[in-house]
Design goal:
- There is one protein chain.
- The protein is globular.
- The strands form 5 sheets. Strands 15, 16, 17, 19 and 20 form a 5-stranded antiparallel beta sheet that branches.
- The chain folds into 3 domains: 31 residues, no CATH class; 102 residues, Macroglobulin (MG2) domain (Immunoglobulin-like), CATH 2.60.40; 102 residues, Immunoglobulin-like, CATH 2.60.40.1930.
- It has 1 helix and 20 strands.
Length: 295
């Protein structure tokens, strides 16, 4: 009996295999490539193009983030207030341990440099000059003694945009924070060379670790121009100068209303500098923004 059933059993198994639907193999070659802005990573498109927010060229995916080292040499080595100091910036690739020589342009420049004094009263946004060696050079007269934070913003080819921080000490005071800023909340309208900026926050009390919408109303609202490739530039610094954040508008069209989105990492008071250009003049204003813990 069992032997007579075998042919029918094998025939049934064969029919079952023939009728079973085939499972297609994953075709990784046909998977669509997602093009991403290396600076604003939430901007994603199905093909190549430019970021509608910052204007950078989209890349087919973003390589893993590696932190590049920024080395600074000064001449003279001892920095003195009011005396010109020559600074040389050398960028080191963490994978090869060699000097980087090729960079991408970010907002019309290869290198954005921010200098901030320990008391948060001094701020400047500059652009060191690229040399054939791959290094960048810049000269500056530091106005007061004390500690200065140096924020270097650049984009090595084959890497990702970088924000590197260094510290320089200017002779005339101890090598520690001698002038604590002791910031007070200040959200009042701020006036610079030829415009006044009014800030509104949403939520009214920013919460550490959560998105804050920062709305700026500019008056007068005519004659506004892009400043080095953007409708505005923002730098936020925590009171202890640990957190330094360089940001650009989330929404801007050349009109008097500009929106930035910011995530403040810790509670405390942040000094926020914003730069807008009107009729060829760069206006720099600053606000002291209080950030609270989530309750």
């Amino acid at each position: 009996m069992f032997l007579r059933l075998l042919p029918a059993l094998f025939a049934g198994l064969l029919l079952a295999f023939q009728e079973a639907p085939s499972v297609p193999k994953a075709d990784t070659d046909d998977k669509p490539v997602e093009w991403v802005c290396p600076m604003d990573r939430d901007i994603r498109m199905k093909g190549p193009g430019k970021c509608p927010r910052c204007g950078m060229t989209l890349v087919p995916g973003i390589p893993g983030f590696f932190e590049y080292a920024t080395r600074i040499r000064t001449k003279p080595k001892k920095i003195v207030p009011g005396v010109s100091t020559a600074m040389t910036f050398e960028i080191i690739n963490p994978a090869t341990h060699k000097r980087v020589v090729d960079y991408e342009i970010v907002h019309e420049k290869l290198f954005h440099l921010f200098l901030i004094s320990e008391d948060l009263r001094f701020f400047t946004h500059q652009h060191p000059v690229y040399q054939k060696s791959g290094e960048f050079t810049f000269e500056w007269k530091f106005p007061e003694p004390g500690m200065y934070r140096v924020l270097s913003d650049y984009y090595p080819q084959g890497g990702t945009p970088q924000l590197s921080t260094n510290t320089l000490f200017v002779a005339g005071g101890p090598a520690t924070m001698q002038n604590p800023p002791n910031l007070k909340v200040d959200l009042s309208p701020q006036t610079s060379e030829n415009l006044t900026a009014t800030l509104t926050l949403d939520p009214p009390e920013p919460i550490a670790g959560f998105k804050t919408l920062m709305y700026f109303d500019l008056n007068p609202g005519d004659g506004l121009e892009k400043y080095i490739g953007a409708w505005g530039h923002m730098l936020a610094a925590s009171e202890d100068l640990v957190d330094l954040i360089h940001n650009h508008p989330f929404i801007a069209d050349g009109g008097p209303k500009v929106q930035f989105n910011m995530i403040f990492p810790r509670p405390g008071i942040y000094r926020v500098w914003v730069q807008f250009q009107r009729k060829g003049v760069v206006n720099t204003v600053a606000f002291n923004v209080p950030v609270v813990e989530l309750k």
